[in-house]
């Protein structure tokens, strides 16, 4: 992992899992250093923990990440997404996959701020409702391109209580370096 401004190794070095407090540190810009990948802050942070992350392995043997979200009836989106018919918006599950993809690039030590760029095909075969207890997200990297733009390309999935209900191909997240004046 790259050194921070003081020459110390960032706290992300060597870790293969992250708890909620560490994810909040990432959202505040403290995990990968100033100007680098950040997660969104709650309520837009869509997972409670990263359970596993590796530079090798996964479906394409190019790295993977896994994360979880505990589902509670009082989550912010249930009362406002279809009044009387609470369901997690599918776009939030997709965003969680992009969030995890960007986190992975920062975890690799790549510089820049992450931005979702596109995805290939997205398929929903179920819903996350208040009866679900746990959502799991998985990202399997196909490619990481390192040039003027760092670009991660991955396939992802979402499981609700162990059943795969979302799949996305070719999730693309780029890291953009801030222009210097």
TrEMBL record:
Its main location: cytoplasm. Its EC number is 4.2.1.59, 5.3.3.14. It is found in: Cytoplasm. Gene3D superfamilies: Hotdog Thioesterase. It catalyses: (2E)-decenoyl-[ACP] = (3Z)-decenoyl-[ACP]; (3R)-hydroxydecanoyl-[ACP] = (2E)-decenoyl-[ACP] + H2O; a (3R)-hydroxyacyl-[ACP] = a (2E)-enoyl-[ACP] + H2O. Pathway: Lipid metabolism; fatty acid biosynthesis. GO terms for cellular component: cytoplasm. It comes from the Bacteria. One of its GO terms (biological process) is unsaturated fatty acid biosynthetic process. Keywords: Cytoplasm, Fatty acid biosynthesis, Fatty acid metabolism, Isomerase, Lipid biosynthesis, Lipid metabolism, Lyase. One of its GO terms (molecular function) is (3R)-hydroxyacyl-[acyl-carrier-protein] dehydratase activity. The active site is at residue 81. InterPro entries: FabA, FabA_FabZ, HotDog_dom_sf. It holds the Pfam family FabA. Necessary for the introduction of cis unsaturation into fatty acids. Catalyzes the dehydration of (3R)-3-hydroxydecanoyl-ACP to E-(2)-decenoyl-ACP and then its isomerization to Z-(3)-decenoyl-ACP. Can catalyze the dehydratase reaction for beta-hydroxyacyl-ACPs with saturated chain lengths up to 16:0, being most active on intermediate chain length. Homodimer. Belongs to the thioester dehydratase family. FabA subfamily. NCBIfam families: fabA, PRK05174.1. HAMAP family: FabA (MF_00405). This is 3-hydroxydecanoyl-[acyl-carrier-protein] dehydratase. It comes from Aquamicrobium defluvii. The gene is fabA.
């Amino acid at each position: 992992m790259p050194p921070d401004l003081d020459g110390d190794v960032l706290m992300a070095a060597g870790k293969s899992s992250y708890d909620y407090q560490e994810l909040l540190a990432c959202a505040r810009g403290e995990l990968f250093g100033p100007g680098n990948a950040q997660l969104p802050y709650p309520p837009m942070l869509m997972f409670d923990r990263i359970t596993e992350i590796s530079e090798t392995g996964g479906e394409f043997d190019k790295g993977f990440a896994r994360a979880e979200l505990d589902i509670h009836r009082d989550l912010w989106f249930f009362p406002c997404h279809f009044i009387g018919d609470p369901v997690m918006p599918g776009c939030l599950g997709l965003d969680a996959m992009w969030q995890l993809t960007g986190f992975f690039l920062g975890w690799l030590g790549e510089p820049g701020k992450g931005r979702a760029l596109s995805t290939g095909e997205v398929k929903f075969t179920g819903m996350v409702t208040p009866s679900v207890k746990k959502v799991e997200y998985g990202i399997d990297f196909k490619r990481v391109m390192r040039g003027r733009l760092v670009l991660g390309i991955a396939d992802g999935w979402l499981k609700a209580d162990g059943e795969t209900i979302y799949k996305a191909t070719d999730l693309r997240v780029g890291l953009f370096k801030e222009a210097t004046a």
